[in-house]
C-alpha cells in the first residue's frame, strides 16, 4: 500500500512539472535596495582621477551691436518748422544671435579627483572646469547707400549722417568653476545607481566685449569697449545616475544646480564724440544649473586591481543674468541708458572623459 502511494505521488509531481511553463531567460532579481556602490577591486585604495576634454559653444543674450538699415536714410518733416526725423526702412538687427553659426566652438578641460570614505561608502569629489571663449562677428551694409546704426555709441555721434557701413564685434571670455561635493552612490536596483550629492561651488567668468564701428566721426573708426567680470561662491546640489547595461556599458544622466553669492565688476568706454567711461561694482545672488547626458564603457586590468573607463556626453550649462553692460543712447548731447541684467550665459557641447579607479 505504501508503495502505491509513493508511485501516485511521483506521477503527480512529474505531471505538474511537465505542465509548468518553460522560460528561456531567468526572472529579474534578486534586487538590492540602498546597497552601497562598489567596483569590487582587489586591494582597493578608494581613489580615482579623471580628465575631460571639452568642446562647447558659448552663447549670451544682449550682445546685438548694430541695426542694418537696408535703404538710404530718408529725412522727413513731421510738421512745418519741426526738426527732421530719420527712419529705419527694412531694418535688420545684427549680432551674435542671428544664427547658430555665429557662435564658435571653444575648447576646455575638466580635471577631477575623488576618494571613497570608510564611513558608509560616502565619496568626496573635487572638480575644476576651464573654458576659453573667443567669438568674432562682422556685419556690413548689403545695399548701396545703406547704413549701419550703432547700438553701443552715445550722443550726437549716432546721427545717420555720420554712420558707416562696416562694423565688427569681438567677445572674449574665461570660464572657471571649482566644485567640492560629498555624495553617496547606492543601488536603486541591480543595474541602476543613484548618487545624490551636495557641496560648494566657486566660479568666475571674466568677459571682454568690444565693437568697432567704421565710418563714424568723418570716416574714422570708433570702438566701444566693455569688461563684464563676475566671481562668486555658493551652495551646489544635484543627482547623478548610472544605468548599467552589462559588459561594462552604461548610460548616465546628471543634474546639478547652484546658487552663488558674487560680485560683478563692470567697466565701459564709449569712444565717440565724448570719451565716456563708466564703472560699476555690485553684489548679487546668481543661480545656475547644468545637465549632462551620455554613455560610457569600462574594464578591469592589472588582475582587477584597477579599473579604467571612457565616457562621452552632451552637456548644457545655464548662468542667469551674466551680461550687465549698459547701453547709452540719445540724439543729443545728453544721455539715457537702457536696463541691465538682460543676458543669460550658456554653454552647450560635448565632453570626452578618461577615468582611472585605483
Write up this protein:
It contains 2 helices and 19 strands. It has 358 residues and is mainly beta. The chain has one domain (32-59, 105-136, 153-357): Lipocalin. A 10-stranded antiparallel β-barrel has the order 2-7-8-10-12-13-14-15-16-19. It has a 3-stranded antiparallel β-sheet with strand order 6-3-9, with no helix packed on it. The longest helix has 18 residues, at 2-19. The chain starts with a helix and ends with a strand. The model is unreliable at 16-20 (pLDDT under 50).
Topology of this structure?
Elements lengths: L1 H18 L15 E2 L10 E14 L5 E4 L5 E2 L8 E2 L5 E3 L10 E12 L6 E18 L6 E4 L15 E18 L2 E2 L4 E22 L2 H4 L2 E25 L2 E23 L3 E27 L4 E18 L4 E2 L6 E2 L5 E15 L1
Antiparallel strand pairs: 1-11, 2-7, 2-19, 3-6, 3-9, 4-5, 7-8, 8-10, 10-12, 11-12, 12-13, 13-14, 14-15, 15-16, 16-19, 17-18
Amino acid at each position: 500500500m505504501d508503495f502505491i502511494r509513493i508511485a501516485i505521488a511521483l506521477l503527480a509531481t512529474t505531471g505538474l512539472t511537465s505542465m509548468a511553463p518553460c522560460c528561456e531567460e531567468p526572472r529579474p532579481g534578486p534586487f538590492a535596495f540602498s546597497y552601497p556602490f562598489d567596483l569590487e577591486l582587489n586591494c582597493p585604495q578608494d581613489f580615482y582621477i579623471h580628465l575631460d576634454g571639452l568642446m562647447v559653444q558659448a552663447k549670451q543674450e544682449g550682445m546685438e551691436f548694430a541695426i542694418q538699415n537696408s535703404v538710404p536714410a530718408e529725412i522727413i518733416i513731421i510738421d512745418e518748422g519741426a526738426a527732421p526725423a530719420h527712419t529705419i526702412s527694412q531694418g535688420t538687427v545684427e549680432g551674435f544671435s542671428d544664427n547658430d553659426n555665429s557662435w564658435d566652438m571653444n575648447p576646455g578641460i575638466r580635471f577631477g579627483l575623488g576618494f571613497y570614505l570608510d564611513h558608509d561608502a560616502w565619496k568626496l569629489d573635487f572638480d575644476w572646469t576651464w573654458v576659453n571663449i573667443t567669438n568674432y562677428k562682422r556685419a556690413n551694409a548689403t545695399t548701396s547707400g545703406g547704413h549701419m546704426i550703432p547700438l553701443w555709441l552715445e550722443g550726437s555721434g549716432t546721427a545717420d549722417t555720420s554712420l558707416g557701413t562696416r562694423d565688427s564685434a569681438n567677445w572674449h571670455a574665461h570660464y572657471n568653476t571649482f566644485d567640492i561635493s560629498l555624495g553617496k552612490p547606492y543601488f536603486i536596483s541591480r543595474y541602476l545607481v543613484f548618487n545624490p550629492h551636495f557641496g560648494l561651488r566657486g566660479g568666475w567668468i571674466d568677459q571682454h566685449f568690444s565693437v568697432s564701428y567704421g565710418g563714424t566721426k568723418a570716416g574714422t573708426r570708433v570702438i566701444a569697449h566693455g569688461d563684464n567680470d563676475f566671481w562668486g561662491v555658493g551652495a551646489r546640489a544635484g543627482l547623478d545616475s548610472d544605468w548599467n547595461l552589462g559588459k561594462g556599458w552604461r548610460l548616465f544622466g546628471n543634474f546639478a544646480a547652484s546658487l552663488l553669492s558674487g560680485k560683478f565688476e563692470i567697466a565701459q568706454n564709449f569712444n565717440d564724440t565724448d570719451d565716456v567711461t563708466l564703472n560699476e561694482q555690485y553684489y548679487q545672488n546668481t543661480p545656475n544649473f547644468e545637465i549632462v547626458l551620455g554613455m560610457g564603457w569600462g574594464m578591469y586590468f592589472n588582475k582587477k586591481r584597477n579599473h579604467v573607463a571612457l565616457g562621452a556626453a552632451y552637456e548644457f550649462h545655464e548662468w542667469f543674468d551674466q551680461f550687465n553692460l549698459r547701453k547709452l543712447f540719445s540724439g543729443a548731447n545728453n544721455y539715457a541708458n537702457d536696463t541691465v541684467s538682460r543676458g543669460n550665459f550658456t554653454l552647450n557641447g560635448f565632453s570626452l572623459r578618461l577615468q582611472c579607479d585605483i
